[in-house]
């Protein structure tokens, strides 16, 4: 198996370099230029997305298992601006769920039953069999149910090819999907998923292996 993102985790030096560059721009009030960070910084931050998603899921689990009751006698000193409004545990979960979905670029996430219907296959068990083989990208949510990005289904109703190869390279479905759906400099700024759709499998795999091995520049 190729080296995976899990094995090739973001290094301390790479993260420190990325944060230093961001801090430097913020010190100069270069907020408008944050989208012009170096390729190395962007790739480092991109590699953190799956980690952040897992962290958000864990926070949601805590909210579901131990909702926090507010005390009407509690007071908060507000140093700047208006005090924030207290929200219920359900509203907090709704907002966190919305943020979790944005980790995968607001894709339409399908259940296993919906995925089976879209692909016109016999049952959700068949969907999970394909997921276990890597042919379908899917991952568990905070509620322990699986979701599947609809965008992996091509216009002809079939799955985008070589998803299993990409997932094998990355070693984790959410990390693979995050990479597939972001512009990749090695592919002339195109999204790897779009290149796969157009038959550019070899180019995508070359870029995926390079990314997984840490060849950022």
Structural overview:
There is one protein chain. The chain is mostly helical and 217 residues long. It has 9 helices and 3 strands. Strands 1-3-2 form a 3-stranded antiparallel sheet. Helix 1 packs across helix 2. It is globular and about 55 Å long. The two termini are 23 Å apart. Mean pLDDT is 74; it is low at 1-9, 74-81 and 98-103.
Overall mean confidence score, pLDDT: 74
Distance between the termini: 23 Å
Largest sheet: 3 strands, antiparallel
Helix content: 40-55%
List the keywords.
217 residues; mainly alpha; 3-stranded antiparallel β-sheet; 3 strands; 51% helix
Outline of the structure:
This protein is 51% helix and 4% strand.
Summarize the topology.
Blueprint: H1 12-27, H2 39-65, H3 89-103, E1 109-110, H4 112-119, H5 124-133, E2 139-140, E3 146-149, H6 163-170, H7 173-180, H8 192-197, H9 201-212
Antiparallel strand pairs: 1-3, 2-3
